Amino acid sequence: MKQLYEDLWVSTPEFPASEHEPELMMHGFLLQHTRGNLLISRVENLNDHQAIEDLGGIIRHYLTHSHEAGPGARLLQTRFNAALYCHNKALGAISPYVEADDTFNQAELHCGSFHVVPTPGHTPGSTSYLYASPFGKTYLFVGDTITMSHDRWVTVLVPESNEADLKKSIEFYRALRPDVVLMGTTAGHLSWQEVTMREWLALLDEAESSPLDLRQRLPD
């Protein structure tokens, strides 16, 4: 785990085998919250699991969408007795790996300050998480709803994507004012980006106009 800010760490990059994108990287994030540590996205590396223990463990694990499920989720759940949360539309896809402790299907406030916001489109159960850190920065965890592919911002279309829902989610993002955008998967790029308001709106424009369409490349 690498520390990014006073209360936020990023996991060691994982490189899932990808025929179409050898530089694909996946990350997870550990957020130190006053009520206990929260884990967002995917962390499969066992060395990172030990680092999580050294940082005090976790009380909850939040998935941004079903593609983040893997054997490590079950290991984390068991090792730390951590509750796993996901959108109810992600349940079927994650069930081969792990059983969720709780689900949501609308915007909710967890732990008093951690905003759970469904942002469907990339997948039906895609969800973002917004947190205003007491250290001054607002973090937005977007999963793969938008991401970086080398030097450009993109949306990613896969067989279960819904373009109309994705457009609505991008419009919702325009009302937010994050200081840091944190992505679960990127290609050839770090998984976080500090942004100004102007940069945030510009990257949303770029992502919306630059869909990375994998529907013809991936099996149904």
TrEMBL record:
Xref: SUPFAM superfamilies: Metallo-hydrolase/oxidoreductase
Domain (Metallo-beta-lactamase): residue spans on this chain: 25-184
One Pfam family it belongs to: Lactamase_B
InterPro entries referenced in this protein's UniProt entry, alphabetically: Metallo-B-lactamas, RibonucZ/Hydroxyglut_hydro
Xref: CDD domains: metallo-hydrolase-like_MBL-fold (cd06262)
Name of this protein: Conserved uncharacterized protein
Natural source organism: Erwinia billingiae (strain Eb661)
